[in-house]
Amino acid sequence: MKIGIIGTGYVGLPTGVGLAELGNEVFCIDNDVSKIETLQSGKPTIFEDGLDEMLLSNIRSGRLKFTTSMREGVENADVVILAVGTPPHPITKEADMCYIHAAAEELAPYLQGYTVIATKSTVPVGTGDEVEKIIRSRNPRADFDVVSLPEFLREGFAVHDFFNPDRIVIGANSAKATNLLKELYKPFEGKTEILFVRRRSSETIKYASNAFLAMKIHYINEMANFCEKAGADIYEVAKGMGLDNRIGGRFLNPGPGYGGSCFPKDTNAMAYMGRQYGVELTLIEAAIRGNDARKTEMANRVLEVIKTIPDAKVAVLGLAFKNGTDDCRESPAMQIVAELLKHNVQLKVYDIKAMENAAKILGNKVEYATSITDAVDGADVLVILTEWPEFKKINLEEVKELMNTPNIVDLRNLLSSEEAKKLGFSYQCIGQ
């Protein structure tokens, strides 16, 4: 099939590479000229494990192309996938649909033959109806269907998840669109559940899934706070909970709160839609408030440690919202850093992959380390904010020699509390 993908970000690029690997002719379309030139040269513009090799091999095979031309990518395409951003509105927090609407407007004149327009961006319920109206008004003679094709790719594991999906959800209101997408996803038959539902149900599934996972994360963080006061161990509690197959063990890891490009945006958008439809989504609303407050609570733990240390220097390990990605959008780490900066704390920061993206946000407000040891050299407190495996392997004896004062605030519970305390560190973690 010929497939056009509009948008080359964290959703569009891995999706395009994956579909090309399955043997399709894929055109990835973006209006950012420099980004397209970088991708044409075979260099990925985001970090995803395994993406660079697969990107280059599919460019060389001729199956994967990058273009700024909507006409080139859309004409005679069997499927056109919308994978542009839907950022939150700064005030209402609803999903901003300007990029979706603009893409629909721009692609409409180039449709030739029957085409399925698939919305892969996370969009409010009813967006398919809006996209359909826009295209119909711009090109009344076009032969097309609009479907919902929500993505469930985890950042840092997007390539793996594309080829090993938990499920594939397709929201189609026509048999013709359903049959075409069955053919597109034929390589996954027998390997995963392919669920065909109504378009509005599909649009809801994405939001309902992310909101539920966000609530689960917030719940375990509240239980972690309880365990700290009650003398219980959150990991023992989480294991006991997770063994109940009605609950499951995933997303029961305590930490500084949920973040990233999906959970904060999608929970806020879901809450906004609830208010629009007059439905009380009290659990989601409570999770949003609690998760927002958690970043301040985590920053206060650091401030409590340094309050008696004059001109304290804080080493921060981790800026990405989770390991395996360079994405700092809505990162709990970045939000905690911002909270500490409000109190004029001296920070020296380091991340395995996200230094460049973090620097675009933080500018000259912090000092940037070149390594773990550089970060901790002369520090009074070591704060761990992202769960990179490399941080788990740090040599605590060496760290203690480099630090001015042996304090650790481990907000990802990566280190051994026994080892840290044995070496003379004041060690704080979550839920223990």
Give structural notes.
By secondary structure, the chain is of the alpha/beta class. The chain folds into two domains: 2-197, 3-Layer(aba) Sandwich (Rossmann fold); 199-432, Rossmann fold (3-Layer(aba) Sandwich). 45% of the residues lie in helices and 15% in strands. The chain contains 18 helices and 14 strands. It has a six-stranded parallel β-sheet, sandwiched between helices. Helix 9 (199-230) crosses helix 11. The mean pLDDT is 96.
Number of strands: 14
Binned, the helix content reads: 40-55%
- Which consecutive residue ranges, at least 5 long each, have pLDDT under 50? none
> Largest sheet, order of strands side by side?
3-2-1-4-5-6
Describe this protein with a few key phrases.
six-stranded parallel beta sheet, globular, Rossmann fold, 2 domains, 18 helices, about 425 residues, 14 strands, about 45% helix, alpha/beta
Secondary structure layout plus pairing:
Layout lengths: L1 E5 L5 H10 L3 E5 L3 H8 L10 H11 L2 E4 L2 H5 L4 E4 L15 H10 L6 E6 L7 H12 L4 E6 L9 H6 L3 E5 L3 H10 L8 E5 L1 H32 L3 H9 L20 H15 L4 H25 L6 E5 L14 H11 L3 E5 L4 H8 L4 E2 L3 H5 L4 E4 L4 H4 L3 H7 L4 E4 L6 H6 L3 E3 L4
Parallel strand pairs: 1-2, 1-4, 2-3, 4-5, 5-6, 7-8, 9-10, 9-12, 10-11, 12-13, 13-14
Helix pairs in contact: 1-3, 5-6, 9-11, 9-12, 12-13
